[in-house]
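Exercise 7b. Backbone tokens:
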């Protein structure tokens, strides 16, 4: 850290800061607690899940064949189908005309039900498309979905603000549309990123060294169910993704900066377990998307020059996340070995150590010369066993239960090959 600076950084000729790397803050992982004892409600839910699954599996082929026939012979009338999983289980076939009578011409299955519906699938999709097209530039729609006789539209601003927007546009919301408003704070529709010197999310002592701290003006909508990570650095006062071709970065709604107790510039309202520093990798849920909305990217380009802008959806330390997952995965694997196969705690620990050592020895190198990550003991131990379809597949002393072979004590059999090998050398 240079003399007089409030945080570790290099200062360029223009007076702006550069931070290319930073060590993760110290992080003490938490040992996950043992799972709570199962409740009667959980057992009942599992039983209901099995009941529904058994029914759906029993009629799946019949439903598929009937649906294909209806699409051919009732074109323009038959729309879609859905499973009714409440109470008396059944399958509902939707028709625009004479639903019950039409279905009975093709099936006598008493669990199949024909219904006459108002909206065709084309009308429902058109309603959802109308919402996207009408409000695309306003960026107020998080997602849409077509369900049973409804096009659900999730709105990212308050109902008051959205109704005012609809009135200004002079449009009518299609009748099949159901609006879902999330409990979010009022977010003005025009809220472009501001220079760092005007941004309340930037400490006063930090602002002179930044060109801009750009944040999205909306809460995140639906995110892809994947984990992503980006190494966020600071170059000449501009935040960039070092491992994404130095793309400029747009931060999530509500992001803040602070200087931690070790004088590193960091993300978040203050020090807390797992926070990230500028210069290290952050991890978040969702894929990495380019941002092109002019209201968001124009101020960034004005401050930092042209270039691709990507959005990060979270600011947790990837290093802290890796550490916590390692501890959590090992604890879960320990429990799995004891619960599934009857090992005691010391045996389970030795088994995991043995698997870790074997995984390290068997690591492979890619054609490019990069050493691949090892297959850890937790990965192997926590892998689910294959289902058993025939009771004759169960070894002596076990019987089939919920698709698996179990002993009277509830332990799985047969033992996996790796566990047999470990137990032989562990005697």
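Sequence design result:
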């Amino acid at each position: 850290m240079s003399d007089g600076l409030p945080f570790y950084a290099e200062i360029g000729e223009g007076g702006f800061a550069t931070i290319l790397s930073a060590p993760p803050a110290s992080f003490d992982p938490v040992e996950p607690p043992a799972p709570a004892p199962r409740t009667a409600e959980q057992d009942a839910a599992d039983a209901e899940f099995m009941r529904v699954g058994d029914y759906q599996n029993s009629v799946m082929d019949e439903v598929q064949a009937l649906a294909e026939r209806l699409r051919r012979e009732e074109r323009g009338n038959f729309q879609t189908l859905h499973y009714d999983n409440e109470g008396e289980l059944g399958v509902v076939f939707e028709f625009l005309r004479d639903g019950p009578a039409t279905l009975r011409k093709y099936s006598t299955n008493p669990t199949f039900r024909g219904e006459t519906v108002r909206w065709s699938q084309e009308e429902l999709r058109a309603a959802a498309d109308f919402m996207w097209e009408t409000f695309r530039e306003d960026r107020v729609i998080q997602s849409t979905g077509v369900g049973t006789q409804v096009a659900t539209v999730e709105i990212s601003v308050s109902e008051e603000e959205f109704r005012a927007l609809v009135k200004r546009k002079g449009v009518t919301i299609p009748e099949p549309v159901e609006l879902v408003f999330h409990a979010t704070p009022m977010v003005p529709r025009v809220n472009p990123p501001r220079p760092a010197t005007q941004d309340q999310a930037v400490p006063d002592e930090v602002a002179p060294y930044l060109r801009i701290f750009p944040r999205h003006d909306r809460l995140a909508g639906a995110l892809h169910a994947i984990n992503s990570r980006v190494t966020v650095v600071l170059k000449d006062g501009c935040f960039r993704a070092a491992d994404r071709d130095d793309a400029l970065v747009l931060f999530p709604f509500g992001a803040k900066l602070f200087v931690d107790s070790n004088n590193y510039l960091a993300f978040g309202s203050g020090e807390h377990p797992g926070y990230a520093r500028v210069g290290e990798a952050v991890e978040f849920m969702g894929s990495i998307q380019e941002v092109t909305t002019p209201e968001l990217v124009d101020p960034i380009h004005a401050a930092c020059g042209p270039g691709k802008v990507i959005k990060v959806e979270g600011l947790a330390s990837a290093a802290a996340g890796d550490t916590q997952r390692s501890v959590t995965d090992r604890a879960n694997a320990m429990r799995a070995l004891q619960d599934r196969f009857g090992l005691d705690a010391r045996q389970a620990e030795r088994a995991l150590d043995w698997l870790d050592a074997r995984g390290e020895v068997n690591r492979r190198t890619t054609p490019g010369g990069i050493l691949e990550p090892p297959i850890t003991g937790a990965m192997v131990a926590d892998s689910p066993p294959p289902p058993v379809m025939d009771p004759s597949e169960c070894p002596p002393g076990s019987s089939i239960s919920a698709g698996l072979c179990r002993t009277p004590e509830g332990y799985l059999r047969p033992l996996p090959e790796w566990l047999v090998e470990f137990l032989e050398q562990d005697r």
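Instructor comment: The first strand starts at residue 10 and ends at 11. The chain has nine helices and 19 strands.
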